[in-house]
Structures are given as structure tokens and as C-alpha cells.
Automatic annotation (TrEMBL):
Protein name, as recorded: Voltage-dependent calcium channel subunit alpha-2/delta-4
SUPFAM superfamilies registered for this protein in UniProt: vWA-like (SSF53300)
Entries under SMART domains matching the protein: VWA
Subcellular location: Membrane
Source organism (scientific name): Acanthisitta chloris
Keyword Glycoprotein assigned: yes
Record's keyword terms, sorted: Calcium, Calcium channel, Calcium transport, Disulfide bond, Glycoprotein, Ion channel, Ion transport, Membrane, Metal-binding, Signal, Transmembrane, Transmembrane helix, Transport, Voltage-gated channel
Taxonomic placement: Eukaryota, Metazoa, Chordata, Craniata, Vertebrata
Family the UniProt entry places it in: Belongs to the calcium channel subunit alpha-2/delta family.
């Protein structure tokens, strides 16, 4: 058996080396070695350079948003509210719709739409923005008409931004009255029930930009009088409040009747981060609440004030706003003693009260509680009122920011832009949004702190990662991004989609996958903590890497280099594998020599790599990467921007590997039909993404098509 095995091995080896020509390739690289420069890669320098480029790209996005904010605030300052304003605008639901007499319907004029590669080939109009309204908002409400009229001023700014920075994607303004102005304009399709449920005021980017981080305790009355519809409305109110909270907020829920109980006993006496998992957990528990017994508010209030005070004094939580949400069907007294003891005179905690039901006998007390604790009082008598009434608290919380004109720039966690255009099949891209609030600058209402809305723009994370190209990181190298909450923005091991039947769907928690779930640190979470704190540094870990779709495992030693991207909550990490990405070869090949070899027929370049930027100028979009490189080298397209270092490496590889073609061709000509049955094709790839191939049999005979 041993001699069989040896013979088989020897035979296989000689066939493979002969037909692949690997010995010739080694010799060719050996021959040019004296003229090569070999440079060691400095990981820290690399990660800092990438981070600076990313920062300048993101800064361009911020500048675009700042220009929009300025335009919106000025337009509002010069606009005089007119309650009888008559005005036609492009309503994205109605555009291009005609009535039975073949006239365009009201608010639905002709709106020219063309497919645009930059926007995933959607039909868009890049000269105008148009307006989307949720179904429950009346499209001719005076407040809407005035807002739409005023925000027409954003059109030229949208267009100008897009011309200045062609990598910008969607830009938009979400108004506090409920309309959403989107550039470029699109046709919006309702869901299968004919409803448009998208309301910009519920989106993460709107809520994050409109308020600062907050600690909230929700107190809900579960005494006997809350039975039936009141309980249903109360539950819906809690769920709606939970939906307005995000990663930077902290929350807990207390239910009270004869005694006070935390609806999740594990969270007794503390506040928890309002991340997706905790919010979903609370929603399930809220759903199980039942009404019985007699309500005593004072104990619940006391408990809430204590928690908020402890958190404030220990420097935990959001360290910004604190509020109590009281949901009840009435208060017998006004509990002045509790407030006097815990909240006056500083009134550090705002108290918002939601009176459930149609009864008004106890309304004065409930209203007094809110008004004497810098809060807001609303009465909710039907399920349909919940949304609008809950949104009010955000405007109250944002007042101090408005009065001081703090334009905080916020960046959201990664999310898929499918939600924005549920009406159109999107290729699912991970995005982050940069957003900023828009305030009213009018002097007469300045002290009211009126928030007009939020301006935002989407940044596809793919664009960011293009700035950390794979070829600079070696074979197993990669770059990843995470946020200051420890969640991944982008990572090769982040698999946000799953297959349901034939459709790909996002996993429910795709945007809150923690870094520790993909980079398994065997000891303490040094890497995670350092990156959350935005530090710069490096560490080394031994890792096991699955390759070939998980069929094999490699044992590698990886060097992690990380730094923060300034002015954003993000951190960038770069991973280099020892023995795979530490050195770069720099060859000096003249253009003439290299071009000749690049023009050979069976040579190709990795098309998903970026040798030249072809996706910005429409004239370049039809070029493949290889065509673009050749035009760049011959000087046919002087305005092509290319990565000179990478093109230089390609030229070098083209020259060194050129003799392989002749070698393969000679072999192919000398092959008799039956000599080596089974050898069909030879190919090679270089680290600069250059590939060559040769067929040994007619293409119709290849066994694996």
C-alpha cells in the first residue's frame, strides 16, 4: 500500500507541477528579486491613515447636512405662517397619477423618473425632492402646507450637495408635523392594504437627533379601574414610548396597584440600557399585565425618584435628561409631599402624565402633577391618539437644546435601508445615517423651543470600507468598524440576512450584534473595551479562521490595530495576519513594458476591487476595471482617478507572469488527445488581483462548467 501511495503521490505531483507551470513562476519571481523593494507594513500607521480618510469622507457628509440645516432655518425665519395657504406640491404617492378624464390628480403632477445606478437603479428624479406623508396625516392640513412650502428652499441645496459630493446618497428632511421630504424624488407605493405606515418621526435617526440621551421610568396603573379598553390603551402607550428609546437611553417599568412591582424582577431598583433585546423583553412583559386591586401612586413615584437619583449621583445612565412617565386613569390627590421631598426645588426629573380614558373628574390632579414638574399632560381616550400624544414628550425634552441652539450631529447604528423604501425592492445595503435637528430661529418663539424637524443623509458603509482596500491588508487581512456601544457597523463575519424560503430577510437583531460575538477574545475583552473607549493601539491574538465556507479551519496569529474616527462615535480596526500581510513587494516596471503584457487575451482583473474609480462619472460606468486601467495608462481618459500603487503592482505582476502564457500554450499544442486525461485548465492569481488562465481542452469538454 505504501508503494502504491508513494507512486500515486509522485505521479500527481509531477502532473500538477508540469501543467500548472509553478516551477517556472517561482523562477521568474526569483529572477526579478534583485530589482524589488520589500517594505514592511506598519499596521498602526495604516489604521491611522485609513481613519483620517474615513473622517474626511464623513466630514463631507456632515457639511452637506449642515448646509441643509442652515437653509431650512433661514427659510423658516423668512416664512410667515398663512393658515389659508393654497399650494400644490409633489406628493410621492400621487405623482404621475391620472383621474378618469386623463387629467393629473391634485398634488400628482407629472414627475419625470429615470433609473439611476447611483441609487441602486431605482427610478428617481435628481432635480427635485418630493413629499411623503403617512396615511394618518391629512395632506392639505395648513401646518403641512406651510411646512412643505417653506422647505421648498431645500431643493437647490440638495442638488448642489449632490454635485459637490457625488458619493452622497439619499438626503432628506423629516418634519415634526409628519411630512418627509426626500431627495432624489421617488414614487412611493403603499403596502398591500393601501396604507403608508412610514412615519419619519418614529425613525431612529429622527428621535436620536431630536432629543438627547434620557433615563426614563415608566409607571403604569394596574388597579381594577384600568380593566378592559383602558388597559389596552395603556399597554399600547408603553410600547410606543419604548419604541422612541434607543441605545443611548436607559429605562425601567413599574406597575402599581396595592403594592409596587417591577415588571421584570431582575431589574429591581435599577435602569437598563434600552437596547433592542431589553425593549423586546419589556414589551412581552407589558403584554401580560392584568388589572386588579387599588392604586397607590405615591409608593411608585417614591421608588422612581430614588432610582433616578441613585443613577444620577453615581454618574450612570444617560447623564442628561431624566423623566417619569405616569400612565393612569386618574389621581385622587396631587401627591405634593412626594415631589417636595424628591424633586423640588431643582426639578431635575420631568414628570409626564398620560390620562387614559374619557373621564375628566380626576384630570386637574393629573395635570397639576405634570405642570409642576416641568412635564406635559395629555389625555388619551382611543388607540388612535396614542402615537401623536406620545411624540409630544420628545418635543418637551428637546426644548433646552432648541433654546441653546445645540446642533448635535448624530450618527445612527448600522441599519438596512430597506425600511426607508419598503415599497421598493432594495438591494439590502447596510447604512448609517448622519442627522441634525432644525430649530426655529424666530425671536418671538425662541423661548418655546420649537423643533421644526430633522435633516439627514445616508452613508452606505460599503463606501467607507472602500477606503480600507483589501489588497493593502494581505490575504487574511480585513478591516471592521464598530460603534461606541460595542455594536458592529461592518465586519466580514457579520451576516445580517437569513433565507426564508427564497427571500433574504434581515435577522431581527442584525444591527445590535456585539463585537465580542465575532472577535472571540480568549481572555478579557481588551479589544472591545479599548475600541468602545476610542483608544488607539494594537494587540495580538491567536485565532482560528474558517475558510472554504466553513469546511476547513486555519490557525493564525493576528495583529489587531485600532483607532477612533474623530468626530464620530465609530472606531476602526484593521487585522493583519502574521506571515500573510506583513510585507509589500514594490516592483518598478515601465508602463510600455507592462501595457504590452496587460493586453493579452486571457488576463483579467478582480472586478470588485477598485483600481480606478468608475462609479462617479457616468461616462466611466460602463468600463470594466481592466479597461479603465488600460485607458488610465495610455492617457486616453485623463480624468480617471486611479490607485497608482495598485496599478504599479498590477504592471509588475503582468510582466513577471507573462511567460506563463507561452509555457501553457506550448503544453496545450503538444498534448495528445489521450495522454493526460483530466487536466483541463491552468490558472494563476496574484496578490494585486491579476488573473490568467489557459484551457487544455476545448471549452465544450470542461467537466465543471
Amino acid at each position: 500500500v505504501k508503494s502504491w501511495a508513494d507512486a500515486f503521490g509522485g505521479e500527481l505531483y509531477s502532473v500538477v507541477t508540469r501543467y500548472s507551470g509553478s516551477l517556472l513562476l517561482q523562477k521568474k519571481y526569483k529572477d526579478v528579486e534583485p530589482t524589488l523593494k520589500i517594505k514592511e507594513v506598519d499596521g498602526l500607521e495604516l489604521v491611522k491613515k485609513f481613519s483620517e480618510q474615513m473622517e474626511s469622507m464623513l466630514r463631507r457628509k456632515v457639511e452637506a447636512v449642515e448646509r441643509l440645516v442652515e437653509a431650512a432655518e433661514d427659510a423658516d425665519l423668512n416664512h410667515v405662517y398663512n393658515s389659508s395657504l393654497e399650494f400644490d406640491y409633489y406628493n410621492s404617492l400621487l405623482i404621475n397619477e391620472k383621474d378618469e378624464n386623463d387629467n393629473y390628480v391634485e398634488l400628482g403632477d407629472e414627475f419625470i423618473l429615470e433609473p439611476n445606478e447611483h441609487f441602486n437603479n431605482l427610478l428617481v428624479n435628481t432635480t427635485y425632492s418630493d413629499i411623503q406623508l403617512p396615511t394618518n396625516v391629512y395632506n392639505k392640513d395648513p401646518a403641512i402646507l406651510n411646512g412643505v412650502y417653506m422647505s421648498e428652499a431645500l431643493n437647490p441645496v440638495f442638488v448642489d450637495n449632490f454635485e459637490r459630493d457625488p458619493t452622497l446618497t439619499w438626503q432628506y428632511f423629516g418634519s415634526s408635523t409628519g411630512f418627509f421630504r426626500l431627495y432624489p424624488g421617488i414614487k412611493w407605493l403603499p403596502d398591500e392594504n393601501g396604507v403608508i405606515s412610514f412615519d419619519c418621526r418614529n425613525r431612529g435617526w429622527y428621535i436620536q437627533a431630536a432629543t438627547s440621551p434620557k433615563d426614563i421610568v415608566i409607571i403604569v396603573d394596574v388597579s381594577g379601574s384600568m380593566k378592559g379598553l383602558r388597559m389596552t390603551i395603556a399597554k399600547h402607550t408603553i410600547v410606543t414610548i419604548l419604541d422612541t428609546l434607543g441605545e443611548n437611553d436607559f429605562v425601567n417599568i413599574i406597575a402599581y396597584n396595592d403594592y409596587v412591582h417591577f415588571i421584570e424582577p431582575c431589574f429591581k431598583g435599577i435602569l437598563v440600557q434600552a437596547d433592542r433585546d431589553n425593549r423586546e423583553h419589556f414589551k412581552q412583559l407589558v403584554d401580560e399585565l392584568q388589572a386588579k386591586g387599588v392604586g397607590t401612586v405615591s409608593k411608585a413615584l417614591t421608588e422612581s425618584f430614588k432610582i433616578l437619583r441613585e443613577f444620577r449621583e453615581a454618574g450612570q445612565g444617560g447623564l442628561c435628561n431624566q423623566a417619569i412617565m405616569l400612565i393612569t386613569d386618574g389621581a385622587v390627590e396631587d401627591y405634593e409631599a412626594v415631589f417636595e421631598k424628591y424633586n423640588w426645588p431643582d426639578r431635575k426629573v420631568r414628570v409626564f402624565t398620560y390620562l387614559i380614558g374619557r373621564e375628566v373628574t380626576f384630570a386637574p390632579h393629573v395635570k397639576w402633577i405634570a405642570c409642576n414638574n416641568k412635564g406635559y399632560y395629555t389625555q388619551i381616550s382611543t388607540l388612535a391618539d396614542v402615537q401623536e400624544n406620545v411624540m409630544e414628550y420628545l418635543h418637551v425634552l428637546s426644548r433646552p437644546m432648541v433654546i441653546n441652539h445645540d446642533h448635535d450631529i448624530i450618527w445612527t447604528e448600522a441599519y438596512m435601508d430597506s425600511a426607508l423604501f419598503a415599497s421598493q425592492a432594495q438591494s439590502l445595503l447596510l447604512m448609517t445615517t448622519v442627522a441634525m435637528p432644525v430649530f426655529s430661529k424666530k425671536n418671538e418663539t425662541r423661548s418655546h423651543g420649537i423643533l421644526l424637524g430633522v435633516v439627514g443623509s445616508d452613508v452606505p458603509l460599503r463606501e467607507l470600507l472602500k477606503l480600507a482596500p483589501r489588497y493593502k491588508l494581505g490575504v487574511h487581512g480585513y478591516a471592521f468598524l464598530n460603534t461606541n456601544n460595542g455594536y458592529i457597523l461592518s465586519h466580514p463575519d457579520l451576516r445580517p440576512l437569513y433565507k426564508e424560503g427564497k427571500k433574504l430577510k434581515p435577522k431581527p437583531n442584525y444591527n445590535s450584534v456585539d463585537l465580542s460575538e465575532v472577535e472571540w477574545e480568549d481572555r478579557d475583552e481588551i479589544l472591545r473595551s479599548a475600541m468602545i473607549n476610542g483608544e488607539t493601539g494594537y494587540l495580538t491574538m491567536d485565532v482560528k479562521v474558517p475558510v472554504d465556507k466553513g469546511k476547513r479551519v486555519l490557525f493564525l496569529t493576528n495583529d489587531y490595530f485600532f483607532t477612533d474616527i474623530s468626530d464620530t462615535p465609530f472606531s476602526l480596526g484593521v487585522v493583519l495576519s502574521r506571515g500573510h500581510g506583513e510585507y509589500i513587494l514594490l516592483g518598478n516596471t515601465s508602463v510600455e513594458e507592462g501595457l504590452h503584457d496587460l493586453l493579452q487575451p486571457d488576463l483579467s482583473l478582480a472586478n470588485e476591487w477598485i483600481y480606478c474609480i468608475t462609479d462617479i462619472d457616468p461616462d466611466h460606468r460602463k468600463l470594466s476595471q481592466l479597461e479603465a486601467v488600460i485607458r488610465f495608462l495610455t492617457g486616453e481618459e485623463p480624468d480617471l482617478e486611479c490607485d497608482e500603487e495598485l496599478v504599479q503592482e498590477v504592471l509588475f505582476d503582468a510582466v513577471v507572469t507573462a511567460p506563463m502564457e507561452a509555457y501553457w500554450t506550448t503544453l496545450a499544442l503538444n498534448m495528445s488527445l489521450d495522454s493526460e486525461a483530466g487536466v483541463e485548465m491552468a490558472f494563476l492569481g496574484t496578490r494585486a488581483g491579476l488573473m490568467r488562465s489557459a484551457l487544455y481542452v476545448g471549452s465544450e469538454k470542461i467537466s465543471n462548467r
